[in-house]
UniProtKB/TrEMBL annotation:
Heme-dependent dioxygenase that catalyzes the oxidative cleavage of the L-tryptophan (L-Trp) pyrrole ring and converts L-tryptophan to N-formyl-L-kynurenine. Catalyzes the oxidative cleavage of the indole moiety. Pathway: Amino-acid degradation; L-tryptophan degradation via kynurenine pathway; L-kynurenine from L-tryptophan: step 1/2. GO terms for molecular function: heme binding; L-tryptophan 2,3-dioxygenase activity; metal ion binding. InterPro entries: Trp/Indoleamine_2_3_dOase-like, Trp_2-3-dOase_bac, Trp_2_3_dOase. PANTHER family: TRYPTOPHAN 2,3-DIOXYGENASE. Homotetramer. Binds 1 heme group per subunit. This is Tryptophan 2,3-dioxygenase. GO terms for biological process: L-tryptophan catabolic process to acetyl-CoA; L-tryptophan catabolic process to kynurenine. Keywords: Dioxygenase, Heme, Iron, Metal-binding, Oxidoreductase, Tryptophan catabolism.
Length: 265
């Protein structure tokens, strides 16, 4: 069982770096939980970005079958991210206050990977890039994603290519801003949902996107619930209004027509 001359499990996974990347700044027992929860979430987000980027390439190439697989995987990743909040919620307000000051101005708001997921999904709030002004590589990556079509922009282009009559101003719009609900897109989805057998691939793609947004909404909801449970309505460490800001994010809809069409069928 000697791996002296070969690659070991630890070598392959880089476990020395990963398992020695936790550096609590206080003596509080629960700071280790806080660090590991956020580190593992960032790893899951890295994988989500990997899969979402692949999904965008597949949809752009009209290769929808493999895109169903990658989108399903992203939903499962979001399920893991949701479960992480369950572990963090075992920490009480009293326990968090023992090390909160050690965090300084660091905040989840500064997670460029979370922002990148938002941009890939279509929520392109350019103002949020200010949090990354001092991280040039992150800023460049975010700007590239902001200027590129989101997963929903690419999906709408597929609807257009398959003859479902999308307005030209939607197809030619500025993709660096968030998509706004459009009647022609809603009408296209009505056609898909009223005749799934005829538009089976588009029907399947629609449901995979709804799955993704469903899990994403749960992630946001679990975030705000956890924050309220642990710090109440105190301001966030990064200077946001905390719970109030997070609650405002619950109103963001990524794929509006896919939700609107359910009322009209």
């Amino acid at each position: 069982m000697s791996f002296r001359e070969g690659m070991s499990y630890s070598d392959y996974l880089g476990l020395d770096q990963i398992l020695n990347a936790q550096h609590p700044l206080s003596t509080a027992h629960d700071e280790m939980l806080f660090i590991i929860q956020h580190q593992t979430s960032e790893l899951w987000m890295k994988l989500a970005i990997h899969e979402l980027s692949a999904t965008c390439r597949l949809i752009a190439a009209d290769d929808l079958q493999p895109a169903f697989k990658t989108l399903s995987r992203v939903s499962r990743i979001l399920e893991q991210l949701n479960s992480a909040w369950d572990v963090l919620r075992t920490m009480t307000p009293s326990e968090y206050t023992q090390f909160r000051e050690s965090l300084g101005s660091s905040s989840g708001l500064q997670s460029y990977q979370y922002r990148l997921i938002e941009f890939l999904a279509g929520n392109k709030n350019a103002a949020m890039m200010r949090s990354h002004a001092d991280d040039k590589p992150a800023l460049q990556r975010l700007e590239a994603a902001r200027q590129a079509p989101s997963i929903y922009d690419l999906t709408i282009q597929v609807l257009h290519r398959r003859g479902l009559g999308i307005d030209r101003d939607v197809i030619e719009r500025d993709v660096s801003v968030s998509h706004a609900a459009n009647d022609s897109v809603r009408t296209a989805w009505q056609s898909v949902y009223r005749d799934p057998a005829r538009f089976w691939e588009l029907y399947e793609l629609a449901e995979k996107l709804v799955d993704f947004e469903d899990y994403f909404r749960r992630w946001r909801f679990n975030h705000v619930t956890t924050v309220e449970r642990v710090i109440g309505f105190k301001r966030g460490t990064g200077g946001t209004s905390g719970v109030s800001y997070l609650r405002s994010m619950l109103d963001v809809v990524l794929f509006p027509e896919l939700w609107q069409v359910r009322t009209e069928l």
